[in-house]
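Recall the central idea of this unit: under ordinary conditions, the amino acid sequence of a chain determines the structure it adopts. In this exercise we apply that idea directly, starting from the sequence alone.
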Amino acid sequence: MNGWLAISPLFVFLAVYLLSSLLAGDFYKVPVTAAFLVASAYALTITPAKPEISGGWRSRFDMDGRISVFSSGVGESNVLMILIFVLAGAFASTAKDIGSIEATVNFTLNILPARFVYAGLFLASCFISMAIGTSVGTIVALVPVASGLAAQTGASVAFLTAIVVGGAFFGDNLSFISDTTVAATRSQGVAMREKFRSNIRIAAPAALIVLIVYVLMGREVSVAHEILPVDWVKILPYLLVIGLALAGMNVIAVLGFGLVVNGIIGMASGSLGWTDWMVSAGSGISGMGELIIVTLLAGGMLALIRYNGGMDFIISGLTKHINGPIGASFSIAALVGLVNFCTANNTIAIITAGPLAKDITGRFGLNPSRTASILDTFSCLVQGIIPYGAQMLMASGLAGVSAPAVMRYLYYPLALGIFATLAILMQKKAPGSAS
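Accordingly, the structure predicted from this sequence is:
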């Protein structure tokens, strides 16, 4: 299949989403699920029938092979993510109903002056995500708290959610236990500490500038309501989620355990009975419905794009006219970014682009640790700015706002992209490498 035709479902998705938004006069009201449904139907239509079907009307209209490819994309890695969505929704809803959000917000406001709430939330997100190595886990733990802080300070829920998302990507990009770090370093054959040294020179200045911005923006923030005493027992679910994640427990086990703890605390305190706990958990799961649908449709559509050669087309196009180390570095950045755009999974993007990036690194005398840093940084950058990425879907679902509403406040990914670009422009050739 022609390469442009293979990747055309992406353009259809963007066109439908943008056109619908313009007709509605509001970019934040159009459901991304509908745009993905149209694009998925189009992708099924343009995909050739199974090779073993020869000639006649069946080769034109048979859908078995196409649906098989689509279904493989739906189930490839999405089942695990959907289970996380389900448990996260149930945990967040039950934590809210037993009063954990209010207790955590009161604790935050008691120890942190209101003017430092933005900066404090960003620092907490950076620290937790770096410690546990997962942006999704950080978002699950802190977005509900961000929503509570918004109610107390009068700030935008979308803005505070974006602060958490930005900090979550900071840690995911740098953590030694992050799957993106593992994938990037292994693909280039470098030690994690070498990649960390290259990465921190990019991420630290970006985070520092964003932190200063949040300090300045928070100068006029005040608490809209009286700060109440802290109910320490009800903070326990969030402390457990963070603590167990720091200890290395699987995120599904963490959320499942947290859900049970919410039920115990709710029943012991009289906040929730058994039926109330079940209703609350069910409500939280139902609230994740749109995220689950987007995950399924996006996975199927992107599988069809890969099947039709769209990924190979992107890779060959980007590497055709490389000229010098700077051009080579930008080609690696564009390669992993576009693959991430097509897969909505930064780890898979790194694994896919890694071997070719290693070849480019050797041919153009790049520093392998810098290449690993580029792979991780630009995959995280793109993952943070696509509305159908798992992190953005999770954050918007937990906060009850649209993904585009959150994306407009993502300052850290923007700063990270600027410093990563500057790092490429100012790079030096690796010692002893060929030109």
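Residues 132 and 246 are 5 Å apart (CA to CA).
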